[in-house]
Amino acid sequence: MPEPSQCRCGIDTVDVARVERLLRETPEEDLRKIFAAEELAEAGQGPGRVASLAARFAAKEACLKLFPRETALGAIGPADFVVRRDGYGAPRVQVSPAAQAVLDRARLAGISLSLTHSATSASAIALGEPARLEVPWYGRLIYHLLPVRRRVVLGNLRRVFGDTIPEAEIRRLAQAFYAHFARLIGEFLRFPWLSASRRAALVRVENIEAALRAHARGKGALILTGHFGNWEITTVAGITQFPQYRGLFHFLRRPLQPAWFDDLVTRRFRRAGLGTLPKRGALDAILDRLSAGGVIVFVFDQHAGRKDGIPVEFFGRPAGTFRSLAILALATGAPVVPATAWREPDGTHVLRFEEALPLIECADTNEAIRRNTRAYNAMLERLLLRHPEQWFWMHRRWKLKDQ
Question: 13 and 123 share a domain?
């Protein structure tokens, strides 16, 4: 059962006359900042239009009251919550990507709504539904008996979730992470012994069309990703399902330790038709591959020192972040395509591509680099929050002295 501090409830009541005045006096373009086009259409044009929109307005306000801090900071607003009716007439909430990130950080699976209205007022109750996280027994066992870098894991989790969920849930996330890490090791050792058909069945690739559309621009592509799920296994098994792209994908990565492990991973990549490039001294090789239509994969969620990175916000705190991805995107025009991976409850894996991020251009090159780098970190935040127990929390992402 969720702890009481995880339960969130928002209530709001609005005068129908106030909403009627709002609809009458607000220009159409400003009205769309409150109501989505589908909400306005669903309310119709009849006598019940104002009361219907008043109930939706109250629902949006009730949803915002679930997250007072994010609302006060302007991270979310009424337009981030779209109130629709399902096939049975029950209200439901569709949330924007920004609102979804807020829900994920609060560990909420969704929002339940109850609406009512009279001739003079409309009211709504919004109830946050806590996300349920099943922790395998071996995750709890490892957490207590083999707590590898447990202090770092808990410290990182508190940086991300400390303001939104109770300490008990943070510990549960840590235990779930150790369970994920144990499965990751087992999968890595078992993978070479699987048949080609078993490997293909192990991974489902979603929305590869986004990567293909970006690549079709003719400037190569840059893949933005991090240590999500069992990324190395998922990539090998996923990309090999598309033999036409063999030799196009190149991973920019640091050598792994120990050296034999790095050799093992590198050989596995090469057999799958995936190239590897060192993070240092590979600029010419990267430019050559992009000009030839190649795809460069950046594992972007590691700490970057002063020589290679700049301090950019990551979950509200400055973190040393590589600037090379933004520099390449600005210099070459190659699109940046986010990608993530996760393990499903049945043990299969998903490799998913997102739509290419828009390039942010400024007169000041340094500011353009900073803004694009922040956009990359913001995307990684959203990807991480989808399955937080499957990110590599052992890594010290925040190393700046003031932390």
Answer: yes
Rounded to whole angstroms, the Cα distance separating 61 from 49 reads 18
Q: Which domain holds residue 35?
A: 4-130
Q: What is the pLDDT of residue 272?
A: 76
Residue 366: the pLDDT is 95
Task: Indicate the pTM of the whole model.
Answer: 0.90
Please give the Cα distance from 71 to 326 (Å, whole number).
30
Number of domains in the chain: 2
Compute the distance between CA of residue 198 and CA of residue 45 in angstroms, rounded to an integer. Answer: 56
Distance CA 64, CA 83 (A): 13
CA dist., res. 43 & res. 47, Å (int): 10
Same domain for 14 and 110, yes or no, is yes
Domain boundary among 106, 130, 154: 130
Q: CB count, 10 Å around CB of 145?
A: 7
Nearest-angstrom CA–CA distance, 56 and 58: 5
Residue (of 176, 171, 229) closest to 391 by Cα position: 229
Which parts of the chain register pLDDT below 50?
Answer: 1-5, 402-403
Question: Would 88 be classed as within a structural domain?
Answer: yes
Q: Rounded CA gap, 132 and 178, in Å? A: 17
pLDDT of residue 2: 43
| Cα gap 233→222, rounded to integer Å | 20
Q: Is the dihedral of CA 309, 313, 317, 318 positive or negative?
A: positive
